[in-house]
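Long-time lurker. I teach an intro course on protein structure, and each term I like to show students one example going from raw sequence to a predicted 3D structure in token notation. This year I'd like something fresh instead of my usual example. Would anyone be willing to generate the tokens for the chain below so I can use it in lecture? Attribution to the forum is fine with me.
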Amino acid sequence: MAHDIKITLIGAGSYVFGLRLIADLLAYPELRDSTTISLMDIDRERLKLVTILSKKVIDKFGFKTKIEATTDRREALKDANYVITTFRAGGVEASKLDLEIPAKYGIDQAVGDTLGPGGVFYGLRGISVILDICKDMEELCSDALLINYTNPLAMLCWSVNDYTKINCIGLCHSIPNTAATLAEYIGAPIEEISYLAAGINHMAWFLKFMWRGKDAYPLLREKLNDPTLYTNPEKHPAGNDLVRVEIFKAFGYYVSESSRHLSEYVPYFRKRPELLKRYRLVRACDRIKDLEVRREKMKKRVERILKFLEEERPIQLPLRRSREYCMQIINSLETGEPSLIYGNVKNDGLITNLPYGCIVEVPCFIDKTGIHPCYIGELPPQCAALNRMCISVQELTVKAAIEKSKELVFQALLVDPLTSSILSIDEIRNMVDEMFKAEARYLSGFR
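-- Reply from a regular --
Happy to contribute to a lecture. Here you go:
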């Protein structure tokens, strides 16, 4: 490496995701001994935990990687070459409101982080934060690459592209994870699978799916036409993936995000209780309970790990690369070693039947000269139509966040596929008003 680099991780308190990215970095010999990782989080305890764990791993292997930790975002950003964002604006409390209030109106979301009422309000909170980060970056590290993992990913990346000078790419593991899932469905080793996917984040389409160089879609269709998939789903490998199976059969191409997420982006599966049951979907009430349970488990787990660390026990962390693209990108940009990843970038003609300027997920070739998104051309028209439904919500939400307009939020949900399949115009307005009142402390300045 010709120079030292600084990687800043904002939202570093995620000791699963944060440590995964750090382990990925350490698996690249060309990067690890010339890198400073600056960990930043507003949660001091979790930041402390990730910092201690990271340093223990580095010391164990004798690497020269430097670890810094701070709750001061500007300090973390100063002179950074790469900034990775993995934050949750509003935390668990705001996420509960995103689910609870729509559920009162009959909109039963189980995730609420990308589309629907939950996704729109999560987007409003997240856009405010990421634009503040970019404002600091323009002053402190204007040439740094922003690598965003935070949902709703497309909305946040769109706001960065249109309203800042920062270079940005959005990353998600849904495409490689889906490829592995499909390989399992047909009984093929993932190493023998090749594919081409494109679309939008959480709704990219597998335009090609091949096993040993041959089209594997006929075999996949055969496996998914097995009657036991519906009569005895517990025994079928796709038994928890019924939403994607139905979309595949109806639209002709497999889509990249899990059934639980995908069911919130379309109007077909969450509008009646019997449909939720038929497609084995988690309900909002179950998700809210799960958030509480997970929060308590998290507290206890942090306490156990801190106690474990205080006892100075040795720590084991295998240095194998995950499916995350982040460090692969940095390695290619720094060393020139070429790689191909899937990234979320501005649609400047890459997918010709999706709106110019929206965020699309496409293959990207990376080397020392930069990130080079691949031209796709037209998606199958039925796939593009479903993407455009979601893009309209994204566009209106970004505009609403910039203009601080409650009316635009209302209009975003008027065209949201799930919301508009369940509620009347008046009901949507009432729900939006109630959500703004409940989340007022997170959303200042909206008129």
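Some talking points for your students: The first strand starts at residue 5 and ends at 10. DSSP finds 19 helices and twelve strands in the chain.
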